[in-house]
What we know:
6-stranded mixed β-sheet; monosaccharide binding; D-ribose pyranase; carbohydrate metabolism; D-ribose_pyranase; cytoplasm
Amino acid sequence: MLTHGILNAQLAAAIAKLRHKDQFVVSDCGLPVPAGVEVIDLALVFGIPRFPDVLASIKDDLVLESGIMAEEACDDVPETWIKDLLGVPLTYVPHDGERGFKALVSQAKFVIRTGETTPYSNVLLRCGVPF
């Protein structure tokens, strides 16, 4: 039995399969996910687990090179969480529309669904390489 790190078997396996340039999403509990994109549902009830708790839990197992957020999250709490916990450069797109954040979710390998209820607590993360 594991004694540290990510204990959720589905999440641990998905993270282990990520390679350079692969993308995945950490989302609030309301983000729509297109058919065909795997959802790793960690949500228990509204607010549990929190978005920043999930970011903090995964950050040590990954090399990340960038992130994309909705423009609506700019200068708000979700952006602060990502900057403080992950320190990745961020770009911004509209939340909706054919080139918006929701549309980009279809490019993700998987979505980690949290119980977060803070609006726009969603980030598309792109994996880097450790060498």
